[in-house]
Specification:
Length: 66
């Protein structure tokens, strides 16, 4: 896969609803986020986890972070 410049990141976010106890009910949203260039991925249950995952990559590039 082609490498991107360090100031560009591509993420794939998949979200779905888990079924609840009855066919008419939904339990919760679930998701999986993947950083395309590195192949790292994480399953998530809320948007804060998505934010934390993305920030891990963005903070690696901040001056003085390496």
């Amino acid at each position: 896969m082609a490498r991107f410049h360090l100031d560009n990141h591509v993420f794939i976010l998949r979200i779905w609803r888990e079924p609840g106890e009855s066919q008419a009910a939904w339990q919760a949203w679930r998701g999986k986020i993947e950083h395309v260039d590195s192949g790292r991925e994480r399953y998530v249950v809320d948007l804060q986890e998505v934010n934390r995952f993305i920030l891990e990559f963005l903070q690696q590039e901040e001056p003085g972070s390496g």
